[in-house]
Specification:
This protein is of the alpha/beta class. It is 43% helix and 14% strand. The chain has a single domain, classed as NAD(P)-binding Rossmann-like Domain (Rossmann fold). Bound molecules: NADP nicotinamide-adenine-dinucleotide phosphate.
């Protein structure tokens, strides 16, 4: 018995576009390049790092065609609300967003202020929620379209200590939003958290200190930037994952230090 054979479609599928926030440098740049290597067209968001954003755009463009950069202060609601429309105007469609940009300033319960809390909440939680809302609204205008949001979290949520209280509260809010957004925006938008361990040096450690901290992890290593980026790519591809978080940290979240692992 012969079976009907579907004739292959002649129309090439449209190239998928991802907006990566904070993509000028560090983890955001690594994520942008990894996604470009996987064929995604990348909208590079940045705030102050103009030159670095230009370089990320040039490098992504070589890998997967026309990339572009978009400037926005994510603590400013109007700027956040204008971001996705700007990307749509320039690139035509958006299929996914990676919320990697993050304000990360030190405070403790002793120095905590509403100002610090608000600054972190706006940029780290509020902006990611508004961008998810905007992606959902955009996908509803495209028949049959679905997409995904990946929110960068932090192993620290599973391993809390009093340092960086405003940053940590903002990431905790984003982790809760992950669940609420996954429920509210399904089936059109999947929402996945990726929680790195201490991955890159900051102003608080030398590379040697970072290496030593990595060796203290249960796996004797922490996350590399490429581990984190590969997990983001996986979360964007796997069509069954939503409302959960993948921890990529060499097991750091299983440790219970009294202070932030990056501090002396
Ligand atoms: N690096 C790590 O070891 C580590 C560990 C755990 C979790 N994470 C998470 O992984 C993500 C990426 O980490 P990272 O170290 O690459 O981040 P990062 O260097 O601290 O910040 C990334 C970018 O965020 C942008 N940004 C900060 N405040 C902003 C604002 N108000 N509006 C717009 N952009 C703003 C900055 O862009 P401009 O430079 O253009 O101003 C900055 O370059 C973050 O969400 C972080 O919480 C990182």
């Amino acid at each position: 018995m012969s079976h009907p054979v579907a004739s292959p479609s002649t129309a090439a599928p449209a190239q998928r576009t991802v907006l990566v926030t904070g993509a000028a440098k560090r983890l955001g740049r690594e994520i942008a390049l990894t996604l470009a290597r996987a064929g995604w067209r990348v909208a590079v968001h940045y705030r102050d790092s103009v030159e670095e954003a230009r370089k990320t755009v040039a490098d992504c463009s070589k890998l997967s065609g026309a990339s572009a950069s978009f400037r926005a202060n994510l603590a400013n609601e109007t700027a956040v609300r204008n971001l996705l429309p700007s990307v749509l105007e320039k690139l035509g469609q958006v299929d996914a967003i990676v919320n990697s940009a993050s304000t990360f300033e030190h405070d403790t319960p002793e120095t905590f202020s509403f100002a610090a809390m608000e600054k972190h909440m706006r940029a780290n939680a509020g902006a990611a929620i508004l961008l998810s809302q905007a992606l959902h609204a955009h996908l509803l205008t495209r028949a049959g379209a679905s997409g995904a949001v990946v929110n960068l979290l932090d192993q620290k949520l599973w391993n809390p200590n009093p340092d960086f209280i405003s940053y940590t509260l903002s990431k905790a809010a984003l982790e809760s939003a992950n669940t609420m957004l996954a429920l509210a925006l399904a089936p059109h938008v999947r929402v996945v958290g990726v929680a790195p361990g201490l991955t890159l040096t900051s102003q608080m450690q030398t590379p040697e200190k970072l290496d030593a901290l990595h060796r203290l992890s249960p796996l004797g290593r922490a996350s590399t930037a490429s581990d984190v980026a590969a997990t983001v790519a996986f979360a964007l591809e796997n069509q069954s994952i939503t409302g959960t978080t993948l921890l990529v940290d060499g097991g750091q979240h299983l440790m219970k230090p009294a202070r932030n692992v990056a501090l002396p």
